[in-house]
C-alpha cells in the first residue's frame, strides 16, 4: 500500500482548465482537456450515502498513484480519439459498479455522498516516443511525475474527486494510463481491483459487483494517534529502482537458507537485502549503528475469524512495525529475513485471535499507534515498506494488450516499494531516501552483487 504526501489543492471548475505544458522541454507533456466522467447508470437512492468504517478513519488522507504503459504494438489502426472514447466509456460503466468512487466525501469525513459527480479525466499528449521515454525514465524516475494527474484537492473538501485519471498519448501511439485513487476510501487492494475491473469492462463488457457491506466495522474514537511527521527539513530525496531477477532471487535465497529454518520468499530476501544496505548507509552517515524500523501493511481480507469477504470494498488492512534494534551481531541477511518473517507471522497470529470488531479495531489501532510513535523518534531510522507483489498489475488488458510497464510515483519520503517483475520470477524494488542514504545504498556490496540492474 503506497504512502504518499497529499497532492496539492485545486479550486475552480475542473472542465475549464486551459491546456498547459509540464515537464522537460524535450519530453513535454501537454494537458489537452479535462472532464468529469460520471457513472453510466445513476446510483440508486438507497445507496446515496456510503458510511466509512474505522479502517477509513485510520487510513492516510492522500491518493494512491499507479501508471500503466501500453505500447499498442501492432495496433496502428487505432487512433487517439478511439482510445479515449473507449477509456471514458468503460470508466463510466465501471464507476456504476464502484459507485462510491464517483462520489465526494462529506466534510466530516465520516461518509461519502454517492452523488455521481464522477472521476476527473485528463487527456494529455507527450512529445516523445514511448520507447524513448522508458529508456530515459529508467535513469530518472522523477520523469514519471508529469504523467500523473495533479492538483486534485483536499480529500474531504466536498468537491475533490476520489479518482483522477490522466491518459497521455505518446508520439508513437503508445499510452500512459495513470490512476490516482483516494486512500481515504480505498486501499491498494481496492485500487488495483478497480483498475483491473475497468480493463475487464473495456475488454469484456461486464464485471462482478464488489461487496460493500461494512456495517461490522463502525467508526470509533481514534484520539491518541499522532499524525505522521513531515519530511526531513532541507533533505533532498532521490528515488531509484533496484531489480532482482529470478537468478538473483535464487542466489539470495541460497545465501540465506543456511541461517534459518524456513524457505524464504522473494519478498523476504529482497527486503532484507535492501534493508541491510539502508542500515549500513545510515551507519556511514551518522557514524554509529542506529535502530531501524520498517512499517509494513497487510491485507486483512480472509485473515480474521470475522471472515471479511475477499472482494470487500474499501480499506481493510493492518499496519505494523518490523524492528531492527541496532545490534551489530544481528545484521546478517538471515537475521533480517527472520525479523520480517516473524513480524508477519506474529501479526497474523494476533489477527486470528480477534473475534469481533472491537478486538480487531483495538489491534489495528495499537499497531498504528506504535508505528506513529516510532516515526516521531529522531534516533530511529524509519521506512514505509509497501508491497504490490502478487497483485495482477500486468493483467490489466483494455482490449489492446497488456501493459509493458507498471509503476507508482516517486516520493519525497523514506519508502521501499516492491512489485513483481513482468515475468513474475523477479522482484523490483523502488527506494526513495535522502541523497546521502542513496549513495550508501548504491555502494552496498550485497546490493551491487544481487541487484542485476541498478537504475
From TrEMBL:
Keywords: Acyltransferase, Transferase. GO terms for molecular function: acyltransferase activity. The keyword Transferase applies. Belongs to the plant acyltransferase family. This is BAHD acyltransferase.
Amino acid at each position: 500500500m503506497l504512502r504518499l504526501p497529499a497532492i496539492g489543492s485545486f479550486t475552480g471548475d475542473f472542465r475549464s482548465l486551459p491546456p498547459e505544458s509540464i515537464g522537460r522541454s524535450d519530453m513535454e507533456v501537454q494537458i489537452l482537456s479535462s472532464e468529469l466522467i460520471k457513472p453510466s447508470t445513476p446510483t440508486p437512492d438507497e445507496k446515496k450515502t456510503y458510511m466509512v468504517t474505522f479502517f477509513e478513519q485510520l487510513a492516510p488522507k492522500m491518493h494512491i498513484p499507479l501508471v500503466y504503459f501500453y505500447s499498442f504494438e501492432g495496433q496502428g489502426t487505432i487512433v487517439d480519439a478511439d482510445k479515449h472514447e473507449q477509456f471514458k466509456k468503460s470508466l463510466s460503466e465501471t464507476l456504476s459498479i464502484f459507485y462510491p468512487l464517483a462520489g465526494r466525501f462529506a466534510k466530516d469525513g465520516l461518509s461519502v455522498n454517492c452523488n455521481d459527480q464522477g472521476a476527473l479525466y485528463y487527456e494529455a499528449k507527450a512529445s516523445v516516443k514511448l520507447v524513448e521515454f522508458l529508456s530515459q525514465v529508467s535513469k530518472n524516475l522523477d520523469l514519471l511525475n508529469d504523467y500523473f494527474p495533479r492538483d486534485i484537492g483536499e480529500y474531504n473538501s466536498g468537491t475533490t474527486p476520489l479518482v483522477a485519471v490522466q491518459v497521455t498519448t505518446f508520439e508513437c501511439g503508445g499510452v500512459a494510463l495513470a490512476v490516482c485513487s483516494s486512500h481515504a476510501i480505498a486501499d491498494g487492494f481496492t485500487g488495483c481491483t478497480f483498475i483491473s475491473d475497468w480493463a475487464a469492462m473495456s475488454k469484456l463488457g461486464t464485471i462482478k459487483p464488489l461487496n460493500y457491506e461494512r456495517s461490522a466495522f463502525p467508526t470509533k474514537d481514534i484520539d491518541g494517534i499522532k499524525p505522521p511527521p513531515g519530511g526531513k527539513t532541507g533533505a533532498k530525496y532521490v528515488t531509484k529502482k533496484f531489480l532482482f531477477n529470478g537468478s538473483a532471487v535464487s542466489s539470495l535465497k541460497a545465501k540465506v537458507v543456511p541461517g534459518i529454518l524456513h524457505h524464504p520468499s522473494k519478498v523476504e530476501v529482497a527486503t532484507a537485502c535492501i534493508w541491510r544496505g539502508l542500515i549500513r548507509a545510515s551507519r556511514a552517515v551518522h557514524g554509529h549503528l542506529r535502530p531501524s524500523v520498517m512499517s509494513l501493511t497487510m491485507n486483512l481480507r480472509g485473515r480474521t475469524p470475522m471472515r471479511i469477504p475477499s472482494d470487500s470494498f474499501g480499506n481493510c488492512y493492518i499496519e505494523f512495525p518490523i524492528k531492527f534494534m541496532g545490534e551489530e551481531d544481528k545484521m546478517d541477511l538471515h537475521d533480517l529475513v527472520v525479523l520480517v518473517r516473524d513480524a508477519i507471522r506474529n501479526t497474523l497470529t494476533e489477527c486470528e485471535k480477534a473475534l469481533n470488531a472491537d478486538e480487531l479495531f483495538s489491534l489495528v489501532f495499537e499497531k498504528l499507534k506504535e508505528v506513529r510513535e516510532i516515526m516521531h523518534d529522531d534516533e530511529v531510522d524509519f521506512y514505509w515498506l509497501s508491497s504490490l507483489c502478487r497483485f495482477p498489475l500486468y493483467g490489466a488488458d483494455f482490449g489492446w494488450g497488456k501493459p509493458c510497464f507498471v509503476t507508482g510515483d516517486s516520493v519525497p519520503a523514506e519508502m521501499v516499494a516492491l512489485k513483481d517483475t513482468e515475468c513474475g520470477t523477479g522482484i523490483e524494488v523502488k527506494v526513495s531516501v535522502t541523497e546521502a542514504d542513496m549513495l550508501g545504498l548504491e555502494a552496498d556490496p550485497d546490493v551491487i552483487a544481487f541487484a542485476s540492474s541498478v537504475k
